[in-house]
Amino acid sequence: MNEPRPLVAMIHAVPAAHRIAEEAFAREFPQATVWNVLDDRLLDDARDADGLTDALRRRMLRLIGHVMDGGAQGLLLTCSSYGEVVDTARALWDAPVLKSDEAMFTAALTGPYRRIAVVASTAPAVPAALAQLEALVPVLRPDRPVDIVTALSEEAATARGPEATARHLADALHATGSTDADVVLLAQYSLTPARDALAALLGVPVLDGAGAAARELRGRLTRVPGAGRTTTAAVSR
């Protein structure tokens, strides 16, 4: 008799995140049945309001309630702008609810990495990722030092193809002296297709948020051997 397939919901604010996250789950957690929910006004409305309002927080909680009532056994919120709502959701529902990049940050901070680089192609993504990482440091590795560096390549946002994107990201890391990092974190889901090419250029592991989230939920919702381990795109140094 076949094992039931875990139902994992994903709530998106932009259509591109839908495709990236689905590809990650197909690769890392193929046992899951994925349920995508898209509200493509979430991000624009938050920008227009200059941040999250109580109305927007309630709206996101209604979306979360919708998938939980529909039987979701796990949830990934792919929009980092609404990450704070996850803390409320965890108090209301027992199913695991993940912020967009939380599993990636956890994997980086609990791994053997001394120097962590965060790379992005849009300026707001850098301080957002940095704030989340720094907030987790005293919780996840209070007794181990960590050096966090960042790099921004706006050219990568318009590059044609994963290889070109990876080259722009690598150039940005070189320009900031960050190529000696032990691991590189992609601050946006949109950069995920460049993960393998960037790892090959730099010779270090590269983590992406969607893949890390898929592995985290796989570890929580199945008993597959090796579930929950962090795998990365990497080459020998």
UniProtKB/TrEMBL annotation:
Q: Which GO terms describe its molecular function?
A: amino-acid racemase activity
Pfam family name, one: Asp_Glu_race
- Family stated for the protein in its record: Belongs to the HyuE racemase family.
Protein name (record): Asp/Glu racemase
